Amino acid sequence: EPCPTPEPPKAEPGAPPGPTRWGICSAGAISHDFVVALKTLPPTEHTVVAVAARDLGRAQAFAQRFGVPRAYGSYEELAEDPDVDVVYVGVVNPAHLPTGLLFLRRGRAVLMEKPMALGAHEVAELVRTARERGVFLMEGFWTRFFPAWQRLRTMAAEGALGSPLVLRGELGFALGGVPRLREPGLGGGVLLDLGGYGLQMALALLGGGGPPKTLRAHGVLHPTGTD
């Protein structure tokens, strides 16, 4: 069955293209932060047209706060909205795979909050589906777009830093009281929450930007089994 494609923004002949129309999946804190950031851009370039949450009341409160025209009480309704060009997915980690597949199979471009999924096999399924449907899929590492980071990568690529051999990174927040991080069933653990920032920097700067030949990890596990 052919997947539907979003209807293009309506514009007069010769007029500039309309804004990219965003749908927001989940009305939690990370989606709040994403929309706050998105609204710093010109509305002629980006606009939020719909938000969905598993609880309609939360979606409506989110919509009222940010002036979003439509609120849905299910992700399926958002996937069927013909006016959505791309969906930002801010659900909890274990829901990344099924939620991402829902939108990709409907032909919606997806910006997936990191981590992309809980493991390589899940990421592979998302990537395969996006390629089969011919739609955009990206993991939302905002640090990759910081001007300072882009400048650092350029300097490294030009040889201005010599040949980097070691990268040491430290990133920490007081998150000991966040139950989500301690529970394997919620996709918890430091690596999926914050560790990816350091890893993606190391992969980009060391070894010519290719995949590592070997990988060794040391760490401490919480009694629940998460790192």
UniProtKB/TrEMBL annotation:
GO terms for MF: D-xylose 1-dehydrogenase (NADP+) activity; nucleotide binding; trans-1,2-dihydrobenzene-1,2-diol dehydrogenase activity
Domain annotation GFO/IDH/MocA-like oxidoreductase: ranges: 149-221
Gene Ontology biological process terms, A to Z: D-xylose catabolic process
Family, as annotated: Belongs to the Gfo/Idh/MocA family.
Catalytic activity: D-xylose + NADP(+) = D-xylono-1,5-lactone + NADPH + H(+); (1R,2R)-1,2-dihydrobenzene-1,2-diol + NADP(+) = catechol + NADPH + H(+)
Classification via SUPFAM superfamilies: Glyceraldehyde-3-phosphate dehydrogenase-like, C-terminal domain, NAD(P)-binding Rossmann-fold domains
Keywords, alphabetical: Oxidoreductase
PANTHER family: OXIDOREDUCTASES, TRANS-1,2-DIHYDROBENZENE-1,2-DIOL DEHYDROGENASE
EC number: 1.1.1.179, 1.3.1.20
Annotated organism of origin: Origma solitaria
Protein name: Trans-1,2-dihydrobenzene-1,2-diol dehydrogenase
Highest taxon of source: Eukaryota
Stretches of the chain forming a coiled coil according to its record: none
Domain Gfo/Idh/MocA-like oxidoreductase N-terminal per the UniProt entry, residue ranges: 21-141
